[in-house]
Write a structure and sequence with these properties.
Layout (H helix, E strand, L loop, with lengths): L1 H23 L1 H8 L3 E6 L5 E8 L2 E6 L2 E5 L16 E4 L9 H7 L5 E4 L1 H7 L3 E2 L5 E5 L2 E8 L15 E8 L2 E5 L17 E5 L8 H11 L3 E5 L7 H6 L7 E2 L6
Parallel strand pairs: 4-5, 5-6, 6-7, 11-12, 12-13, 13-14
Antiparallel strand pairs: 1-2, 2-3, 3-4, 8-9, 9-10, 10-11
Length: 255
């Protein structure tokens, strides 16, 4: 009986030690094992489209076997556990959008990096796109660089006009607007026929909920994902658009 008790005690202590080690390393293990939210769609040409939401402004868009990572940042995912990138899109050089460690983790010699001019210079590789540039990647994949900047007095220091990019990625006829860090700028009136939009809601750096609501009404996307929203009460955006029957607001873990 004593031997049985001693063995049981030893097993308990061993398990307790193992559990303690697991708990102490839980941040890394959680990152590696975490199941990120994904949404799947059928594009207008009948092919599959999947979007993975890491966190904040980090996304993975998969279409026809091509993987487009947007603003990958190591704080939001363990990118060594992600597939390799065909394309990496960088909006601007702030640390929550531009991370060389994350880029290195998903990059291969064939990966094409596309960034605003500042990030392209900092990386010393890849292709720079400035506001207004258009890149026809394949006959059914097109990328447009669009303006992203602050307009409220005192905020222009965060994102000055002409420096940063938003992107419109068209895949199989489906148009995805990734706004980058911006307020509700006048140029949004020129953004048409958007199927899926990502709008930032994180005052004072990007938009207030009221600005995001106005931007959504201007752009009229079929699906809106508020992103980059930090501690903002993001339900304010959803509530503010409840009467816009053509806009479906989807909340994902993009704080």
């Amino acid at each position: 009986m004593k031997k049985i008790l001693l063995v049981a005690l030893a097993l308990c202590l061993s398990y307790g030690f193992a559990y303690s080690c697991l708990f102490n390393h839980s941040i890394n293990l959680t990152t590696k094992m975490q199941n990120f939210e994904t949404d799947s769609f059928t594009t207008k040409n009948g092919k599959s489209l999947k979007i993975t939401f890491f966190k904040h402004a980090s996304l993975l868009i998969e279409y026809a076997g091509k993987k487009f990572f947007v603003d990958p940042v190591s704080d939001y995912a363990d990118f060594t556990q992600q597939p390799k990138a065909d394309y990496i899109l960088i909006t601007h050089e702030h640390h929550d959008h531009f991370d060389t460690k994350a880029i290195a983790a998903i990059e291969t010699p064939d990966t094409k990096i596309i960034a605003n001019p500042n990030c392209q210079k900092m990386l010393d590789k890849g292709q720079a796109m400035k506001n207004g540039d258009i890149l026809q990647i394949t006959p059914e994949i097109k990328l447009e660089a669009v303006p992203a900047y602050n307009t409220t007095p005192g905020r222009d220091k965060f994102h000055p006009k002409g420096r940063d990019n938003g992107y419109i990625l068209t895949v199989g006829g489906t148009r995805i607007y990734i706004a980058g860090d911006t307020e509700d700028i006048p140029e949004m009136k020129q953004i048409k026929n958007i199927d899926i939009a990502f709008l930032p809601v994180n005052q004072p750096y990007t938009m207030t909920p009221e600005q995001a609501i106005q931007s959504a009404k201007t752009i009229q996307p079929h699906i809106l994902y508020p992103y980059h929203y930090g501690d903002t009460n993001i339900n304010e955006v959803k509530d503010g658009l409840k009467n816009e029957k053509e806009i479906e607001v989807r909340i994902r873990a993009l704080q």
